[in-house]
Amino acid sequence: MSTEITGYAVSFLVYLHSVSADKRYLEAAERGARFLVNAWDPKRCVMPFEVDPATKSYFFDCGIIVRGLLSAWRATGEEEFRTVAVAVGNSMLRDFASDRGDFHPILALPAKRAEERDVARWSRSAGCYQLKAAMAWWDLFEATGEHCFQKPYERVMEYSLAGFERFLSGFEHAQTMDRLHAFSYFLEGLLPWANQERCQEALRLGIVLAGSFLRAIAPTFARADVYAQLLRVRLFADWAGAVQSDHATLAEEAESLAQFQREDGGWWFGRKNGEMMPFINPVSAAFGAQALDLWKRREQINRHLLV
Length: 307
Prior knowledge:
Elements: H1 3-20, H2 23-39, E1 56-58, H3 59-76, H4 79-95, E2 106-108, E3 113-114, H5 131-144, H6 150-163, H7 173-189, H8 197-217, E4 221-223, H9 224-239, H10 247-258, E5 270-272, E6 275-276, H11 282-297
Antiparallel strand pairs: 1-2, 2-3, 4-5, 5-6
């Protein structure tokens, strides 16, 4: 059972409740948040990647889990959700910090030993994509007023801004499409500081880069979540006054994204050489559904509701 995917699901269910007032979504979000509370190991102070067996902990996953728990806390007022979110945020600060000044991507449990990095695999490296996870610290600062969570977000911001332009370079098409998914996390992670000049410049350049790569590679390989993430970040950046998006581009990307939704409501993960890949997952569904809903309703929402 994946703690990270549950964190995404909780955030998405809270979003669905916010736009529909259907209590079933909030009830499901509470059940998911309760699962995360129970997955937290208070003895070892660690959030495992999977609960059985609990052999690894991921920096990125912990950030997604924090944001899911905070979403549930805002929607329900259940204080335990915030308490565990703070505990996971402190674990990210304490256990993943490296001597290099960045944050280890993976720890082996139970020793909390940093696993060897692999620069060819973004999920096993420290990099700009980690900014979305670090956004959880900024959310914790806003939720608690504890200033200890400000500086770590800024720390990840600094090394992300320094190296993001190289993140998509030098890979073949399939790898680049997968890295576009991660690169979009970086763009999302900029949103708390979208009023800062450096972040606005990074958003402008990053959106152009992502859009160009997506259009170039899509005829042979396209991922639904990349279309969804790019559409969402265009909307949020526009609302923040950071990057203005033109209607034609938004409409084109929304139309391309909609092609991945199945009749039963699920979302195909991707398409290769004109054929849909035969599987679906909750994250593509959450990103895709939220992106299209935001596009259709054209109503600005609070950044905390970004899944």
